[in-house]
Amino acid sequence: MSDKILLAPAGWEERYYHGMLIDIGEFSPSKIWVPYSNEYEDRTKPYRTQIRDYAYQNKIQYIETAHDYHDSISLYKSLLVEFKNQLSRESVVRFHATTTPRDMIWYLLHFLSEEKVHTEFSYFRPNGYGSYLSRDAKSPNLVLKRSGIAYPDLPTCILVLSGYDEERLSQLKQRYEPKVMLVGHQTGDQLENKIRNVFGSQEPTDDDIFFDFDCFDPSDESVRNLCQKVDALSEQFNIIAASLGPKPSALALFKLTQIKPEIGLVYIAANDYSSDYSSGIDLKNRTLCKAF
């Protein structure tokens, strides 16, 4: 019988913990693997402790592994080592990605897809966001194993599934100086979306292209929609893609690179993530889908 593994990189938000309890109840894992950040060890410790105790009480194997989230190469290497230790091709995985950094999402999805592991993707929305999400954005970096193909004679197009953090998107523009920005705006009025998600709409260039996109929906249909958007540009531009919206948009972009490996994924980390990033958990709206 296949091992059922709940993969849940540690977080400090309420929705992380309460979503974990829901995933445990639904999925009935035999093992819980919780990678956590050395840098934010103190913030994540209370929920890690509660989940560990819950696992022990319910006779579920619980594994924690520490990683350096601020060093992308170190993170990739250490995750790969632990991935080989904790999972096999026969494993069945539910990936609780609610508060996982996007580069880590992409690394883990890469490992899972390469090994053809049956994987579900689970994401819970909050009831609300804090006054800021992150500050002091770092320089953007292409993601290992998903950096795409760049031709020296072609200009750059950046595909962005936008969110509330304009500073990180501004860093993206400064670093890559795109000729075209292809911006997918999150649809709907949930979580103050129409007020806070305004990137690029006030001072667009003549070449920028805007379209509506449901960042909570990483379905094959959504990915086909993205394919259609980039098809018209793929022969004229080197294309890189960034997810700054809800985490399911990271899965959508990963699926896009499975179809179009010439597209590179780029991640913009920050030096400061809010301790009050979000509040509560929205139990009425949840993303649970098959990844592979």
Structure commentary:
This protein is α/β, with parallel strands linked by helices. It folds into two domains: 139 residues, Rossmann fold (3-Layer(aba) Sandwich); 140 residues, 3-Layer(aba) Sandwich (Rossmann fold), CATH 3.40.50. The chain contains eight helices and 16 strands. It has a six-stranded mixed β-sheet, with helices on both faces. Strands 8-13-12-9-10-11 form a six-stranded mixed β-sheet, sandwiched between helices. The longest helix is centred in the N-terminal third of the chain and has 17 residues. 44% of the residues are buried.
Features:
globular, alpha/beta, 26% strand, 2 domains, 16 strands, Rossmann fold, 6-stranded mixed sheet, 34% helix, 292 residues
Task: List the topology elements.
Elements: E1 4-7, H1 14-27, E2 31-37, H2 41-57, E3 61-67, H3 72-86, E4 92-96, H4 102-114, E5 118-124, E6 128-129, E7 134-137, E8 141-142, E9 156-161, H5 166-176, E10 180-186, H6 193-196, E11 209-213, H7 220-231, E12 238-243, H8 248-259, E13 264-267, E14 270-273, E15 278-279, E16 286-290
Parallel strand pairs: 1-2, 1-4, 2-3, 4-5, 9-10, 9-12, 10-11, 12-13
Antiparallel strand pairs: 5-16, 6-15, 7-14, 8-13
